[in-house]
Design brief:
The protein has 138 residues and is an alpha+beta fold. Helix content is 25%, strand content 12%. 17% of the residues are buried. GO terms for molecular function: electron-transferring-flavoprotein dehydrogenase activity; flavin adenine dinucleotide binding.
Length: 138
């Protein structure tokens, strides 16, 4: 509703999703500093957390570039990995995963999926992306 009030033409009337540029900016040229990613955007990616994460990283990269003084022309386009993946973490080394990598969409149990989870459940990766310096005591 917020986007519909701000920029009605940015909403795809057929499906209600937000139209975005490849840089994850909304399509309205009046608002070059507004980005969208994930389940709310009009994109061919499957609506899963995996794709939302990758789209969000693309948006984050471009927002950081702008904050650091880069021009709009230097923003990087999001490139879909075309890797449908749903993974539910059930604990430190337990997970179930569904993917199409090995052919049709299949489910993979904890033995394989659990080994794809780092010991700190991605906390280090997130801290590095955000340039955070978490306390050793945390």
């Amino acid at each position: 509703e917020l986007m519909k009030a701000l920029s009605p033409d940015t909403i795809n009337k057929d499906n209600g999703f937000i139209k975005v540029k490849p840089t994850m900016q909304i399509l309205d040229e009046r608002y070059p500093n507004i980005f969208a990613a994930g389940d709310v955007i009009d994109h061919t990616d499957v609506k899963t957390g995996h794709y939302a994460w990758m789209q969000g990283l693309a948006a984050l990269t471009n927002i950081r570039k702008l904050i650091n003084g880069a021009s709009y022309d230097s923003l990087e386009p999001y490139k879909s990995k075309d890797l449908a993946l749903i993974k539910v973490i059930l604990g430190k080394k337990e997970a179930v995963m569904q993917t199409h990598v090995l052919g049709p969409l299949i489910a993979v149990g904890s033995w394989i999926a659990g080994r794809s989870i780092p010991h700190n459940v991605y906390a280090t990766t997130l801290a590095e992306m955000l340039k955070a310096k978490p306390s050793k005591d945390a």
